[in-house]
From TrEMBL:
This is Peptide methionine sulfoxide reductase MsrB. It comes from the Bacteria. InterPro entries: Met_Sox_Rdtase_MsrA_dom, Met_Sox_Rdtase_MsrA_sf, Met_Sox_Rdtase_MsrB, Met_Sox_Rdtase_MsrB_dom, Mss4-like_sf. Belongs to the MsrB Met sulfoxide reductase family. Keywords: Multifunctional enzyme, Oxidoreductase. One of its GO terms (biological process) is response to oxidative stress. Pfam families: PMSR, SelR. The active site is at residue 197. GO terms for molecular function: L-methionine:thioredoxin-disulfide S-oxidoreductase activity; peptide-methionine (R)-S-oxide reductase activity; peptide-methionine (S)-S-oxide reductase activity. Residues 85-208 form the MsrB domain.
Length: 225
């Protein structure tokens, strides 16, 4: 259970739970709600370690240090940034630029990853930010890479798309503002029923054996579910 006293903390808590849920195949049982009742501990326990510098209750202080050394703080998460259009034109192929910046769609069954079956991670071609993993990829028969969900929904934005006489939901990466593809509700029911239909040109695939070398080691557990 997670309690919060500031309503502004709720989106952060939701995002953290979503990231945790993305690492598991079964639903996680973590509830969160506003703190309703709070009672301070008795004076004996206030600033306990200041009053008892040798340790907490029967636990010697040296064990706290041993635990700290055995469980070092995790490395700070890598920050991904959006490139300006001039730099993207130099970095990307004409097709990649046209898809990511001009909302173009590549040809089905004639793109790089539509039938890619190796284990690995798919990142935003413009920023390198992880978006999808192979364990959520499935063959939809449409000719484009299809995923049941992104690694973290907070990395994706959805927009109404009324182009070409159709009503669709466009999918873009939040950090790179990259046009990725479209979202449909005809995906496998056992995987949630959604289909993220994504252009290969918007993605870069990193195979599992290269993920550590390329700086994506922390996402390898997602491939083992």
């Amino acid at each position: 259970m997670i309690y919060y006293t500031d309503k502004a903390d709720e989106p952060l808590i939701k995002a953290s739970i979503n990231r945790l849920a993305a690492k598991h195949t079964k639903p996680i049982a973590v509830e969160y709600k506003p703190l309703e009742n709070y009672f301070p501990a008795e004076e004996y326990h206030q600033d306990y370690l200041d009053k008892h510098p040798d340790g907490y209750c029967h636990i010697p202080k040296r064990l706290f240090q041993a635990a700290k050394e055995a469980n070092p703080a995790p490395s700070p998460k890598k920050r991904y940034t959006r490139m300006d259009d001039a730099s993207l034109k130099k970095k990307l192929t004409p097709m990649q630029y046209n898809v990511t910046r001009n909302n173009a769609t590549e040809t089905p069954f004639n793109n790089e990853y539509w039938n890619e079956s190796r284990d690995g991670i798919y990142v935003d071609i413009t920023t390198g930010e992880p978006l999808f993993v192979s364990t959520d990829k499935f063959d939809s028969g449409c000719g484009w890479p299809s995923f049941s969900k992104p690694i973290d929904k907070s990395l994706i934005t959805e927009k109404a798309d009324h182009s070409h006489g159709m009503i669709r939901t466009e999918v873009r990466s939040k950090t790179g503002d990259t046009h990725l593809g479209h979202l449909f509700n005809d995906g496998p029911k056992e995987k949630g029923g959604m289909r993220y239909c994504i252009n290969s040109a918007a993605l870069l695939f990193i195979p599992k054996e290269k993920m550590k070398e390329k700086g994506y080691e922390e996402y390898i557990p997602l491939l083992n579910k």
